Amino acid sequence: MIQRIQSLFLFGVAVLSGIMLTGDLLIMNSGSGKLFTIGFQGLGEEGGEIIQRLWPLSFIMALVPVLALVAIFLYRKRSTQMRVTMIVILLSLGTLILGAFYVIMFDRKIDVTIIWKIKVVFPLVSAILAWLAYRAILRDDLIVKSYDRLR
Question: What is the C-alpha separation between 10 and 89, in angstroms, rounded?
Answer without folding.
Answer: 11
